Amino acid sequence: MMRRIHFFFIIYAVVPAFVFSTPLFAKEDTYRGLSDFAKALSLIEKNYVEEVSSEQLIQSAIKGMFDSLDPYSVYLSSDSLRNLEIGTMGEFEGIGVEITVNDGFLTVISPIEGSPAQETGMKSGDVIVSIDGKSTEKTNIVDALDRIRGREGTKVDIVVRREGTEQDVKFTITRRIVKLRSVESKLVEKGIGYIKLSQFHRGSAEEFLSSYRRLEKENDAKLAGLVLDLRNNPGGLLEQAIALCDMFIDKGLILNVKGRSEQTLKEYFAREGMEILTDHVAVIVNRGSASASEVLAAALKDNGRAKIVGTRTFGKGSVQSVIEFSGETGVKITTARLFTPKGILIDGKGIEPDVFVEGVDKGSASDPQLARALETVKRM
């Protein structure tokens, strides 16, 4: 019997259980396929040179089915299920990197701010070639994360292929406790606030609102302008992105979710009223902005609440539902795709900025994207 687990990671959403139920009348080719599967299972059990358990074969078959779908649909072991839940908390053990599979290659979405991965120089767009000397070819996201994560103080060797470099780059990274610093803020000048949102985890929307109110108190008045920095924000909890959008938008459409069944069709609307009253808002994005951060940027752009500054975002806009099986295993399956309020597909396309500005490596004396965002706020 299947039961639903009650946490969601990156862009996960609940889909009613009957969406996953077996049809009353299965297709003829389904019966034929199940018959072939049973024959293959029996053949291996009786004739393979070494003894293999039925449970192992069935789990491998399920894993193969999900691996054939898309990078985000995967079979989950009990450890993988626990790791998904850890990802929504405030800290975890590892190197701090968000990854995906892009055109068949294991690719870095973004290193997390202040993490060992960022400190050693990993960048958005790096293609991970090997982990601890083992090739990542045909490795799915969950398996790769299981190999990358580990106990604090242990090391992992990662080799990446980077655009613009002839030779692969090798990193030896020491794992540690990675704390997800969600919100950082400051008053950049009189009347203009700056808030950096690094990740969407539990409580991020309220943290953001608290930071905004502190800036207004420091300014002794309503903020005339606000710069929201979503660079290298790989996403997090969709519910937190929706809640944050609602603070900026008065009754507008936030997000359109479209799947194959009626149960996966959903529109998210903002409630009446706004907590963030600043009229002049600029949002900075880059290639490392993905998932929930793209939802926020698109909603503010399409509703006329902000200008987007920077480079095109990553383009990770799909919904995964996590279903737990008996025996503490489960699956994560893509059930829908995300569209902006103006009907633009996010997945594989990303969000196009209103003002295109290339960024610079961290540590540079100047930040052209921030400078242009401040200029944009002042001109609005």
Q: Could you report the average pLDDT, rounded to the nearest whole number?
A: 86
Please report the number of helical segments. Answer: 9
Task: Please estimate the helix content.
Answer: 25-40%
Q: List low-pLDDT spans.
A: 1-25
CATH architectural designation of the largest domain = Alpha-Beta Complex
Distance between the termini: 56 Å
**What's the CATH C level of the largest domain?**
Alpha Beta
Quote the beta fraction: 25-35%
Compute the number of structural domains: 2
The rounded Rg comes to: 22 Å
CATH homologous superfamily assignment of the largest domain: 2-enoyl-CoA Hydratase, Chain A, domain 1
Give a count of the beta strands, DSSP E runs of length 2 or more: 20
Main beta sheet, described?
Answer: 6 strands, antiparallel
Order of secondary-structure elements: EHHEHEEEHEEHEEEEEHEHEEEHEEEEH
Enter the CATH topology name of the largest domain: 2-enoyl-CoA Hydratase, Chain A, domain 1
Structural class: alpha+beta
Shape: globular
Question: Describe it for me?
Answer:
The chain folds into two domains: 91-179, Roll (Pdz3 Domain), CATH 2.30.42.10; 183-379, 2-enoyl-CoA Hydratase, Chain A, domain 1 (Alpha-Beta Complex), CATH 3.90.226. It starts with a strand and ends with a helix. The protein is globular. Helix 7 runs parallel beside helix 8. Strands 1, 2, 14, 15, 18 and 19 form a six-stranded antiparallel β-sheet that branches. It has a six-stranded mixed β-sheet with strand order 11-12-13-16-17-20, with helices on both faces. The chain is an alpha+beta fold. It contains nine helices and 20 strands.
